[in-house]
């Protein structure tokens, strides 16, 4: 069976778009997930606030278990090897491309890597909503970058009006048909749009030392409460007109699906190939009843990026399909109905070659 692989996510965007702000946000809200961040330099990464626990060559260890390393393109493969080594215990790697880097080249390097411990996890293109027209005029290649992205983040959405934002969303949808576009402010995207967050390993300990991550989260909560208090001097609770636009989950919808009946591979791939706009993220695991393929297929999708990871079911694990879908403006009923139509009522009659579509996205 395939061994566990670490997804490598490419974070791209032109100078000033807010890539580093978004990366800092991910590092500050990593929860129990250990992030390996590959950056061009440490100048803008908030390593001081995160507490530098140690430094080896050009790699910095952050107090919450994450790692940062500064590299140029020629060193990338070597640092992927270092971040992927078992001792680092990294869960996901995020590469912040320089403002003028060609994301295709970075993707090519990841795909060409001989390291079987890493797997390409998708391209996230960050777009400056406030300076989009000017950036596009200076860098016409922006259109191409958006077109190959698996997820587009429209940053600085708070600095543009509703009409401008809707116009930009329409433009981006034209540049990348079917690719999800997520409007955010200050790079505050929900980390679960990009990767699964793990629970803290020490969550069962009754008493433990307060970590720097705890302090940072406490500071964030304090800042939000402080700002919220100024906005609501008239009362303690949110009432009509209360603005929650700054909250991570604001505007996102989550749809859950479960099936005790095995899924038909061809119908499921038809569903996945035609998933609707606004569906940013899918995760979960799938049970197929096809002979020779009754393993657990873990599903990971970000925008257009799709991957299955095959592994054996645990002895005590129930053979079911469970999925969570996250998006904006999605039709929950239609999604559930579509997946319900993928159930395989006669899996023993489903031929093995019907799995070819799934196996095309399965990591060896």
TrEMBL record:
<keyword id="KW-0143">Chaperone</keyword>
<dbReference type="InterPro" id="IPR011629">
    <property type="entry name" value="CobW-like_C"/>
</dbReference>
<dbReference type="InterPro" id="IPR051316">
    <property type="entry name" value="Zinc-reg_GTPase_activator"/>
</dbReference>
<keyword id="KW-0547">Nucleotide-binding</keyword>
<dbReference type="Pfam" id="PF02492">
    <property type="entry name" value="cobW"/>
</dbReference>
<dbReference type="InterPro" id="IPR003495">
    <property type="entry name" value="CobW/HypB/UreG_nucleotide-bd"/>
</dbReference>
<dbReference type="Pfam" id="PF07683">
    <property type="entry name" value="CobW_C"/>
</dbReference>
<keyword id="KW-0378">Hydrolase</keyword>
<feature type="domain" description="CobW C-terminal">
    <location>
        <begin position="252"/>
        <end position="343"/>
    </location>
</feature>
<protein>
    <submittedName>
        <fullName>CobW family GTP-binding protein</fullName>
    </submittedName>
</protein>
<dbReference type="InterPro" id="IPR027417">
    <property type="entry name" value="P-loop_NTPase"/>
</dbReference>
<comment type="similarity">
    <text>Belongs to the SIMIBI class G3E GTPase family. ZNG1 subfamily.</text>
</comment>
<dbReference type="InterPro" id="IPR036627">
    <property type="entry name" value="CobW-likC_sf"/>
</dbReference>
């Amino acid at each position: 069976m395939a061994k566990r692989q670490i997804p490598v996510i490419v974070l791209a965007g032109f100078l000033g778009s807010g890539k580093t702000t978004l990366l800092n946000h991910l590092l500050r809200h990593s929860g129990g997930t250990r992030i390996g961040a590959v950056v061009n330099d440490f100048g803008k990464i908030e390593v001081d606030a995160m507490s530098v626990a140690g430094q080896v060559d050009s790699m910095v260890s952050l107090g919450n278990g994450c790692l940062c390393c500064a590299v140029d393109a020629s060193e990338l493969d070597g640092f992927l090897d270092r971040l992927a080594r078992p001792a680092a215990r990294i869960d996901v790697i995020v590469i912040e491309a320089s403002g003028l880097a060609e994301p295709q080249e970075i993707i090519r390097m990841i795909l060409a890597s001989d390291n079987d411990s890493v797997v390409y996890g998708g391209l996230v293109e960050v777009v400056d909503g406030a300076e989009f027209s000017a950036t596009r005029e200076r860098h016409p290649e922006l259109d191409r970058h958006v077109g190959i992205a698996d997820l587009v983040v429209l940053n600085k959405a708070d600095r543009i009006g509703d009409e401008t934002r809707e116009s930009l969303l329409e433009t981006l949808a034209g540049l990348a048909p079917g690719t999800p576009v997520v409007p955010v402010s200050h790079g505050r995207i929900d980390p679960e749009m990009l990767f699964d967050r793990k629970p803290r390993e020490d969550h069962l300990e009754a008493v433990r030392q307060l970590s720097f991550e705890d302090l940072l989260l406490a500071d964030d909560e304090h800042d939000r409460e402080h700002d919220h208090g100024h906005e609501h001097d008239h009362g303690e609770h949110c009432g009509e007109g209360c603005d929650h636009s700054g909250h991570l989950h604001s505007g996102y919808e989550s749809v859950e699906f479960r099936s005790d009946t095995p899924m038909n591979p061809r119908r499921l791939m038809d569903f996945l190939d035609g998933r609707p706009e606004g569906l940013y993220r899918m995760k979960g695991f799938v049970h197929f009843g096809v002979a020779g393929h009754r393993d657990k297929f873990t599903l990971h999708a970000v925008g257009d990026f799709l991957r299955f990871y095959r592994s054996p079911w645990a002895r005590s694990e129930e053979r079911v399909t469970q999925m969570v879908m996250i998006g904006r403006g999605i039709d929950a009923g239609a999604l559930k109905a579509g997946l319900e139509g993928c159930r395989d009522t006669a899996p023993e009659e489903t031929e093995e070659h019907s799995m070819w579509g799934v196996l095309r996205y399965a990591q060896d």
